[in-house]
Amino acid sequence: MNPKHLVSVIAVAASLFVTGCEPEIGPNGVPVVGDGPLECGRLAAPIHTVQGNQAMSALVGENVEVEARVSAKFVDGLGGFYLMAEPGSEDADAATSEGIFVRHAEKLDWPVGSKVRVRATVAELGAAPDSQTALIEVSQLIRCEDKPLAVAPRAVTAAGNAPTDWERYEGEHIAIAGPVSLVGNDDLLRHGALTVSFDGRDYAPTERHIPGQEARALADANAATRLILDDARLDEFPKKLWHLPAPLTPETPYRVDSQVGGIDGVLEQRDGEYRVQLVAPIGSVVQAPRPTQAPAVDGDLRVASFNVLNFFNGDGAGGGFPTERGAQNADAFKRQGAKIVAALDALDADIVALMEIENDGYAETSAVAELVRQLNKARGKERGDYAFVQPAAERIGEDLIAVALIYRKSRVQTQGEAVFTAEGPFAKWSRPPLAQRFVAGDFDFVVVANHFKSKGCQDAEGPDQDQEDGQGCYNAKRVESARVLGDWLATDPLKVGHDRVLLVGDLNAYGNEDPVRHLVNRGFVDAVATHMSEPAYSYVFRGNSGRLDHALVSASLAAHVGGAAEWHINADESPGFEYDEPDYDRRALKTRYRPDVYRSSDHDPLLLGLRLQPQTVAPTPAN
Fold this sequence. Notes:
By secondary structure, the chain is α+β, with helices and mostly antiparallel strands. Helices cover 19% and strands 28% of the residues. A hairpin with a 2-residue loop joins strand 12 and strand 13. The protein is elongated.
């Protein structure tokens, strides 16, 4: 007999001795449920027996009676309430939970702490095995005592001591003093959710490790120390974020790496993830500071890479909105432009590779021409000397978006025409790379702007499907893009007669993924990994930080790299600071939007310093 069932049998024997009744015990070790009315005080199925010590309950489909106290009421938000066993009734098995969800759509007038008895069916909600044990199809529910008695939440340790198995707390009212680290804020506006970790910032497994065993181990470790803090509602785009200790504003931005304390709620498993459905606002948040200045890098020239998040300018004359991507009206486009211009102005780069700019050519009405005009106007006559690179083509490839190169005419000059390739995967999937030769004094080099196929799985087939190795969908297309790019550059397409080449841009691959390693194996040097001593990241996705944006230099150019940096103005920020006008909360523009650099995109800009004369001593690689 299972030990927890033995506990139930012992409890039955005690009941017989006290009451003289002879309840029938089923083969599962819990009392058999009859058809009569509920009676408080009779032997009931303990919550820990219903929950069990495995991922799923052994009593699924069984009709049971449970008597416990209401620990949280979420009838309006989640369609039910939670029960918690009374102190002293717990079992000795640390792997079993003492709390459970009861699906109940009717209003529950009794306060939290009320002792109730319920007759219902045991079920698992969600996809197995990542489901939540619950009581559903409630047939009877009564209150057993008039006086409520709150059951204290179970304290869960934080700061590097996260539980190794959250299942044992499923359904329980818990309290986390903290601090824990905020690792994801991208779902705050849509679902009222923040992601926190007990182990500091979480990094994408394939940023730290080659796809394989070590990467899988890091993915498991991230999941084991992570929780989602939820607002106890299922509706989208809540008008009020009641659970935040302060509103989402530029002064309280809830950036990644903020420290969160005072978490009070019920732990549940929903959508395959462990969540704390909060019963009270978060106690405290120590806001992570925003960087106030663009980073300095050693070198004579500053080269940047910046994904401008679908910069589409309509018809180029103030109309033509909504566009297929980007701003949906002229006012939103003005707000978008103000943020991107502010970021580009502060970067003060001599050359900038742009990604996700509208692929509408190079006329005065084009997106790239519009961006350069706005940037030069903001910088004034003395500093507004940017121009854009124009290849001998009306547009680059057939995608809606393209890469582009802009540069300061007073700092560098172009030599020869820019070229691109639309061969292989660049014909449809990855955006065609754009290459231009630049000259500064006696020094010349080639910059190639890149934007490989994203990890999204829409229309993925065969080898482009997710191989469950941490690299997402279309990894095969990205590897092929890297191979074709390397082969193309090996032909010296600009006829420069040397191989001083800088590859920059959004490769949609983390630092240890196949496309990046392919280019490194061909002799390119990862400038960010070589020159940055702190952990690098340019993007945060589902709580994982990593580099999608790269700077890879040929061996002959590597000695000219003086430094590399990322400016963390976007990835750590909430999408609530973007230029959009939310349909669900138009007041947000007044409280959140500023024409500043923060959340000008979803990618952080990357900055590289190049010396006109090569270094004589090689830099110390990052740890």
